[in-house]
Every structure is written in C-alpha cells, then in structure tokens.
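fwd from M.: "can u put these together and see what the complex looks like"

so here's what she sent:
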Amino acid sequence: MTQEPILKGRNLVKRYGRVTALDHCDFDLYPGEILAVIGDNGAGKSSLIKAVSGAVIPDEGEVWLEGKQVHFTSPIDAREAGIETVYQTLAMSPALSITDNMFMGREMRKPGWRGKYLRMLDRAAMEKFAREKLSDLGLMTIQNINQAVETLSGGQRQGVAVARAAAFGSKVIILDEPTAALGVKESRRVLELIQDVKARGIPIILISHNMPHVFEVADRIHVHRLGKRLTVIDPKEHTMSDAVAYMTGAKEPEAA
Amino acid sequence: MSQSDSYESAINRADKVAEFEHKNRGIVGTIQHLLHVNPALVPLIVLVASVIVFGLLLGSRFFSPFALTLILQQVQIVGIVAAAQSLVILTAGIDLSVGAIAVISSVIMGQFTFRYGLPVEVAVACGLMFGTAIGCINGWLVAVMKLPPFIVTLGMWQIVLAANFLYSANETIRSQDIQEAAPLLQLLGAKFSIGGAVFTVGVIFMVLLVVVLAFVLKHTAWGRHVYAVGDDPEAAQLSGVNVKMTLISVYGLAGLICAMAGWALIGRIGSVSPTSGQLLNIESITAVVIGGISLFGGRGSILGTFFGALIVGVFTLGLRLLGADAQWTYLLIGVLIIAAVAVDQWIRKVSA
C-alpha cells in the first residue's frame, strides 16, 4: 500500500504501573479498509485501541489522523475529530428510546425561539434522521423508533450502536468485539452491517476474538502480541491456524 | 493444518439457526408494555380510583371544591420537595437532606430579615442561594468524590439540621411579627378562592414546578441526560454526556427547589420554626416511590411523583373524614409503597 494511512500510531507506549501494555507499538489504518486487530488476552489490543481513540492517553508516541498529529484527551475529542467507537458494552441507556440513544450527547434543538430559549429538542427531526440511518443499514425490522433500547434483541442493539457510529463517524469507526455477545444468526446480521458500512467508504477497525468472523470480513489483520504489532497478515494468504499461532507465539512470522 | 481449520465450515450453517418468532403479547403483556411506556399511569389510576372511592363513601363532604383543594394545600410542601427528590432519584441517587435544606433555608430567610435587618427580598434570595449551595456540595461529593449519595446526604442531613438548631438557637419567629414586618416571607401561603376552591400561591407554584420539570425532563438535552446518567452512568459518559456536571446540577437544582419549599413552609405554618418539616425526607421519598419512579434510577416521570403526593393527600384527608384512626393512613401508605415497588419490578421485566 502506497497510500497514506488515515489513522496512524507510531511508537505508542502505555504503562500501568510496572506493566507495559503498549511497548513502542505502531499502528496503521488505510482508507476504506477493514482492519482486524487480534491478539491474546492481555496482549494490549484494547490499550492500543484506547490510545488511538482517546480513551487513554499514551505515555509516549504519536497518533496521526489524516496526516495531522492529534492529541486526544478523551473519547469526546476523538469523536469530534470523526472517530466513533462502538464499545463492547455498547454504551447505551437501556430505558431510553433508540432516538434518544442515537443523539445522546449531541442532541438537535428546535430552530427558532423554542430551541433557543426553551432549549427544546427537535424530536421530529431526530426521529427522522434516526429512521433514515437505520433503514440505510437495512435495520427495518425495528418497527418503532421510540421503543426503549432494552426491548430490542442483542443483535438489534448492536445494530443501533453501529448505526449511531456510522451516522456520526465521518472518518473511522472502531468496533470492539461486536459479535462477542451475539448468537450465530445475529452475528451474521452484524457482519453484514460491517460490510455495508465499509461499502460507504468508512474504514473500520474490528477487534475480535472470533477468527471465522475476522477472516470473513477483514482486509488486513493486525496481529498484536506482547504490546507490539507482531505482523500484519493478509487473510487470503494465511489460515486461521497461522493467525492463532502468531498470536500465541507458537510460530514466528517469516518477515516480521 | 487445514484439518484444524474445519470450524470455518461452521459459518455456512449459520443461516439455519435461531429464527425470531414474533411474540404475541396477550392482555397482561400489553398492559405491562403500556405501563413500561407510560410510568405515570399506575399512580394516576390509583389516584383516580381513590378519589372515586372516597367520593362514594363521603359524598359531598369529600367531593367538594373546598375539600379537594384542601388536599392540594396539604400536599404542597411535600409535593415541592418530592419534585426535587424525583430529580435526584432519577439519577439513581437519593437525597436525605431535602427536609433539612428546606428548614434551614426558611430559617435563613427569617433570621436574615429579623436578626440582621436585611431587606426581606435579599433575605429570601440568600435562603434560596444557601439551599442551592448545599445541594451543589452534595452533588460535588457524589459526582467528583464518588461517594454514595445515601451516605453523603445522610451526613449532610445531620450537619444541616444541627447547623440549623445552632444558628437559630432553636428560636421561632412568630407569625404576627412576620405579618407586620416581612409579609413577603408568607407570600407562598397567600390564599385566594375561585368558587368554593381555595388555592395558595404555594399550590400554584407546585403545579407550575411539576409542569416545567416535566417539560425540561422530556424535551431538553439536559433532561435526557438526567435519565441517561441514572440509567447507566458509564454508558452516558461514553456517549458524550458530562456526567459530573449533570449530577452536580441535579443536586444543586434539588437544593434550590428545597429552599423554595422552605419558603412555602413559612407561608403554610405562618411562622419560621427550626423544628418544622422533620418528616419531609420520608414523605418525599414515599411520594416518589408511590409515583412509580424507580429507586434504581433512569425510569419514571415527575408527573408520577405529583400523583404519588396527591395519593397520600387523598388517603390522609379521606380517612380522617371517615373518622378512621390516623394509623390506618400509614398502614395503607405502607401497602402502597410495597405495591408500587412490586409493580416497578414487574414493568422492568419487559427488558428481559
């Protein structure tokens, strides 16, 4: 790849006390691709993702977005820069409606005096927008945009969370274990969603333990081991067993 | 190598597994769903039913504009404090210091006027600011210091109540003195009647407060944030809600509303008494719980609290007019509390 990475990390270091979670780690995400990040538990995958999405501040190293160096101090910073993260816990309020959740923290106010002085929310516009975004991603099975998120199935919730990220994430979407809590059928829907989002040209970082899922959707696989990027492999040229072997250290990559 | 990759084939089986059947809810399920969407419905039904029952038993003695507005007057203080309590409980907190804040605010309004000779408007403003400040301290301790709300407000309750007795020297300011020198202190007790119905400014304030808070909670970003913080603070934080500021503003606003209740308290009892309002904590929590707001946060509506306060008022007056022992009121309210929480738990099962 000769392109400039859209999101790039260089020499990232993060220590927690005596534990070094990230040890001079590099990271590259290219435009329009799905990059899977795999690694054993404790390898530092989530520290890496948190470092590029602003959830933790790296001790050393640089993060570049579209060729410009950025210093995120919170996930909100990263979000404003166009990086949306779908957390494993989904970060949704179960008792609130789909619309409320999609716009949480970035509500739209009514135009005119009602928005300005009464600070009234523009529910109609928010609902329309939410409905559009859900149907864009083929989530038409949700009948009522005002139903509480807790009344949705796990897959539907994941769908809403992905739709939220896709609606606002202009540059990068990070998905943390999106299929971990789902059944087979629901996982399938979410994988289709991921493909849909990719088709719209937004690059995706996918963190997953599920090798079949990773190999199915990823364009490149970043293998993380002992706080570093061990290698980046092409899923078409490697088998899942290779990936697992690299991950666990049973096998060394030929050209690291 | 390729042998161990055989699990790859499993993904192709995926389409055969787990179809979702469309649930037919049935009558019970429909009711459950309806209550889930409209949490104020239960207390409204109980309120209407109890008004009808007492109306049938007592006839025009109960079913008159005078008696019905008397209920409003009797619940105004609890109603105002319960509105503050609702905000805090919606954030999955609890405020045990509401009564103490109301009382100390009323004492400050009175003492600043009579001890220091400040203009009464200034004294009232000082009382309101003091209530807000205590609320903000509660909020800061909960949001920033991460102390449990129960502990923070339990401590604050004792501190404020003791400060109240120390500062006021346990001294009551008499009603006649207030009437002569500072009638503004009794403003919220001013009565006017329409037909046979008697209203006070405090009652009007309570109703307006409930309407305004209902609007704010439903139609502003801040209101949605209050629910989100109560529902799941971590999720709210990750979605971009400023959880700390939301909590501090909720406790601060609760303090301000309690101080308003303190002002209304002067109007209601006429005098400024440091020993008044001792039961406001429990009564406000009772109204909130009967009103269907979940003590676990994030669910319920302020209208429910209003209905909850009215239910208590209807039972109190109705049973008194029936000549029943006052203990029957407490007994029935105890039953209502447990029933309300049972209904809340049942409604929550929709999510499963």
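replying to her w this: The interface with chain B takes residues 75-76, 79, 85, 87, 89-96, 100-101, 104-107, 109, 118-121, 123, 148, 150-151, 153, 183-188, 211-212, 215-216, 239-242 of chain A (CB under 8 Å).
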